[in-house]
Amino acid sequence: MKALNYRKLRQDIHWLYRQEHLALGEEGTLRMLEQAEQWKLAPVLDAGGVLVFPHAGVADCGHQIAAVVQACLDSGADRVLVVSVLHSFSAEMEDARRRVAAGESPAQFRHWGIQGPGLEGRQDWRFDHVLISWRHFWAAETRRRGVKGPEVIERYPYLVGGKPGELPGIEELVAIARDAVVVSTADPFHHGIGYGDSPEEALHPHQGGLDLARRRIQEGMAILGRGDYWGYNQHCVEAKSDARDAGQVFRYLRGPLSSEIVDLTYSDAADLYQTPAPTWVAAALMQWLLI
After folding, report:
1. Domain membership of residue 33 as a residue range
2. How many helices (H) and strands (E) does the chain have?
3. CATH number of residue 150's parent domain
4. Are the C-beta atoms of residues 52 and 82 closer than 8 Å to each other?
5. How far is it, in rounded angstroms, from Cα 84 to Cα 124?
6. Is residue 1 part of a domain?
7. Cβ distance 253 to 241 under 8 Å?
8. What sign does the dihedral 190-153-58-252 (CA atoms) show?
9. How far apart are the C-alpha atoms of 149 and 156, rounded to whole Å?
10. Bridging pattern class, strands 50-53 and 279-290
């Protein structure tokens, strides 16, 4: 796997998102909002559970994102806490993440903690693409319903390292979560040549790839559900999941959880990484229920 130019990759992803959203337009957005109505997921949030949506290509998984937006609005909650992924779009951030996964203390790295709107400190979250489609469907659905909607609080943990209770800023999230519904985002399985798998091991999604993705995602959900934070951290390394930090935090906030994949699809990434197919990311809509 060739070395990444993180700055260029971030620029390319933002360009791709702009093009995908332009192509979607109002008509495509409405179509996805209507498609999302097949799921009625507000009871998960009403019962204190967590819904997780992907942040892959909007043409592929926008309906999954929209389903979580609708669940938040249908729940009648006054506040929504979004525990978001924060991508490592610099060599320094990626190095810190790798060293923590190798067992080093996250406290020695300056990115350790929680970022987000209204917080002082690092502002890496401002340059991340992760919630662009979430914000798009939130704006579209509240406009369609003619409502303002509840307060949305975005938080971006980084370098949890198996110890969410020690993460700087976690006390604020615990307080917020007491009277808010909690949702999160994840692209829980990246696969193929562009993600470092050999051509011999790389599977196309419809030739065993999605079956593998489902198994690996379910393995990770089981590990996280029982509160094995370090085990989940290491699972995310192996499965190439970007949700190692966000997942540990929402499990810490909510306690023991059972889980289910509601819907699973994929988004092709071969062009983005300028590598041969198969190179793709699994897009999963997931629900987590309090035990």
Report:
1. 6-290
2. 10, 8
3. 3.40.830
4. no
5. 12
6. no
7. no
8. positive
9. 22
10. antiparallel
Q: Looking at the domain assignment, is residue 257 inside a domain? A: yes
Name the residue type at position 290: L
Number of domains in the chain: 1
Q: Is 191 helix (H, G, I), strand (E, B) or coil?
A: strand
Q: Please list the residues that pair with 152 across neighbouring strands.
A: 80
Only one residue has tokens 């999302």, namely: 36
Q: What is the pLDDT along the chain (291 residues), one digit of tens a residue?
A: 457 799 999 999 999 999 999 999 999 999 999 999 999 999 999 999 999 999 999 999 999 999 999 999 999 999 999 999 999 999 999 999 999 999 999 999 999 999 999 999 999 999 999 999 999 999 999 999 999 999 999 999 999 999 999 999 999 999 999 999 999 999 999 999 999 999 999 999 999 999 999 999 999 999 999 999 999 999 999 999 999 999 999 999 999 999 999 999 999 999 999 999 999 999 999 999 999
Distance in angstroms (rounded) separating the CA atoms of residues 287 and 39? 11
Ramachandran class of 289: left when φ > 0, alpha when ψ lies in -120 to 50, beta otherwise: beta
Distance CA 142, CA 107 (A): 40
Tell me the two tokens of residue 127.
């340059």
Tokens of 111: 């990115």
Closest CA to 259 of 119, 49, 70: 49
Q: Write out the two tokens for 195.
A: 């993600």
What global pTM score does this model have?
0.97
